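Subject: Protein entry, chain in single-letter code together with its fold tokens

Area: Proteins and the way their chains fold up in space.

Attached in line: The record itself begins immediately under this heading.
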Amino acid sequence: MGKVFGSVRARAALGATVVVAVALVAAGFAVLAVLRGNLADRAEVDAGAAARAVASKVAGGVAYRELDLGDDTPVQIVDEDHRVRAVSDDLQAVTGTGSPSVRPVAAPSDDDADADDDTADDGGTGEVSSAPEYTNGSARIDGTTAEYRWAAVEATDAHGDDVTVYAGAPLATEQGAVGTVRQAMLIGLPLLLVVVAGVTWLVTRRALRPVEGIRREMAAITASTDLSRRVPEPPSYDEVAALARTTNETLAALEASVERQRAFVADASHELRSPVASLRTQLEVGAAHPELLDVDGAVEDVVRLQRLAADLLLLARLDAGERPDRTARVALDGMVREELSQRTGDRVPVVTELAAAEVTGSRGQLSRVLGNLVDNAQRHARGEVRVSVRAEGGRAVLGVADDGAGVPGSERERIFERFVRLDDARSRDDGGAGLGLAIARDVAERHGGTLTVREGPGGGALFELDLPLGERPGPG
């Protein structure tokens, strides 16, 4: 049972059914109330008209025993002492009026017919009140008891006596109509709810069919680990289609990431193989012939392994999402002076043009970027490497230029890929493993900046690290 109502279709159908049921029940009660009120108002109108008609005759001087009260509308006339002066024919019992009695009694002023005749001849008239009052009750006529709406109209007869005329209108029409409507609702409501539930189930099933296709395809991708597969995209522009497109974009990004990871592992293994093999060979030769051991070559291979391991470790941390400290402040001009003062054995001299510029981030990572750019410039420069720092437009720009052959326009983005070396720098003795520029760009992006290359003033390559200037703290 829980599994059935755990589905979106079942919950949607149940929710729609409950909402419609509540709305229909509320509407049904409102309809019944309005219908009952309208029919009751109509009964009041009929009862009030009948009561006023009889009251007018009483006020006009017609004797009680001469009133034609008819058989269809029950009428009772009661005086101030709750004595019944007149009732309609065949009225056997009554409730809701001025007296439960249905037997008229003679008033003192009506003890004989002569008095009535004299009154009629005198032409005396009474009064009729204008506002009837209404009550609910019952009446039994010819053995049949029914509910009635009673209208009470006060009048003054020709003798000056105050009486109340009660006239009733049957409520059978109201009760019958309300009962018919209620029965129709009780029969139609369940059928309508079944239709609503069924339609909602079918509509929801049709709407969620693409989602089921996405789920099945994702399950198949998970089982097969084939990230080249894509989920079906419905030809619509709704939320489900957006979900499918986003899922495919995620799969594409995941596939590209996995491919990069595989290529990275393959390239790293390839790069590690050469120095390890060279070092092993030299050690084996040295073990057999100590006089032939190339200690300097072995040290160079160990240094290369150390640098490569450090590069791979930094790339792994960057790929894991390591972010620089945004609260640490780094003076680029001071950092350049310090780093360049520690470099020895550079092939060509380094010229500096430094202006004050302060950024936020990791000093260690930014120093690594500077070192990688200077190392790259040293490998390609003919006679000079120039390092500059300047501040412009809220940005700090660190530039490293050489006077070498430069970077062809078609290669200016590819050189930032991992393990990429241009043809003239593929020698492992002269060049690196092809990770320096990739690391430099990753660090730049994680500091909110960019690293680009263009032609330098001397015709060589000019690498520019563009970073946002750090906000200077206000006065404490």
In short: The chain has a mean pLDDT of 82.
